[in-house]
Amino acid sequence: MVRMGVTASAPAKVILFGEHFVVYGEPAIVLAIDKRAYAKAELREDKLLHVHSVNLNLSGYFDGEAFRVEQGDEKRAKFKLEPIKVAVEKVLEFRGEKVGLDIEVNSTVPVAAGLGSSAAVASAVAAAVGGLLNVKMSKEDVFRISYEAEKVVHGTPSGIDPAISTFGGALLFQMDTGFKPLETKDVPLIVGDTGVERSTGVQVAKVRSVKERYPRVVEGMMRTAREVVLRAIDALKERDLETVGDLMNINHALLCGLGVSDESLEWLINAARKAGALGAKLTGAGGGGCMIALAENERLEQVLKAVQRVGGRAFIAKKTDEGVRIEQT
Ligand code: MEV
């Protein structure tokens, strides 16, 4: 039986430790947070795929490889909506039959900001289409599909974003061994968005170039990043926030060394530290986008205000254990 319309959602994420290094096989720690992307799938009478992103004000039709813009700049629309098409096609391959669909995406996750919005959208789309067409898919399948979509966004993703948006919670992630749930007590966090949109692909390429130019130097940084993650696992388990904060600062210094911080991030990070944060770092790919700050619960408001005062769009983030889920049928 095919349903009339199905809505699914998936969470955004913050990488606590190990972004960029994770692309080269090092471990990373990631949390799903209480901001979600939503996707609604409905059947069409024809065989077209119509995609509408409410929050980006973009829409258009895919007819095989052809794309026709309906709303927004054509190039931007194709670029932003293409990963959604890939996610839909992968689910249709599972089903073994092509149908026309209307997909509407809406998201509370800042875009191109390091919070995994594209992976959250892809996971939600895969689950919504699977739910609509009654395709039997495990969470592992949804993960693989959103990973394929993520490859369109940037060529060499580690898979950390699709993993967390699908499974939720806190994960220790490594490319060759996969991911396992991580035990954490509460992690009181502020997320500060610089408002500077950037491309993950560009930042990943920047790191690759630094690594190629200084292989032995970067090798040492990789080892340090690994030690940071290993030490953080215990500190998170024990709620030793002081150690977690110190490790965040060390992690940020490594990312600065790779050239992926920028002035907009440094403003927010310094403001958070001055206001009493235990640690602060960029999160995700950097080059703009978001930073995170850790603070004792009683200092969260103070840190939040300090980040806002220097121009950050900031909010208190809570961990969510809810990965991708069907909202309503
Ligand atoms: C992006 O959220 C995290 C990066 O490490 C890229 C990736 O892991 O795919 C920068």
State the main characteristics:
single chain; 329 residues; alpha+beta; Ribosomal Protein S5, domain 2; Alpha-Beta Plaits; 9-stranded mixed beta sheet; 42% helix; 26% strand; binds (R)-mevalonate
Description:
By secondary structure, the chain is α+β, with helices and mostly antiparallel strands. Helix content is 42%, strand content 26%. It has two domains: 179 residues, Ribosomal Protein S5, domain 2 (2-Layer Sandwich); 129 residues, GHMP kinase, C-terminal domain (Alpha-Beta Plaits, 2-Layer Sandwich). The strands form two sheets. Strands 1, 2, 3, 4, 5, 6, 7, 8 and 13 form a nine-stranded mixed β-sheet that branches. A four-stranded antiparallel β-sheet has the order 10-11-9-12. A hairpin with a 3-residue loop joins strand 7 and strand 8. Helix 6 packs antiparallel against helix 7 and helix 8 packs antiparallel against helix 9. The model has no long low-confidence stretch (mean pLDDT 95). (R)-mevalonate (MEV) binds next to helix 4 and helix 5.
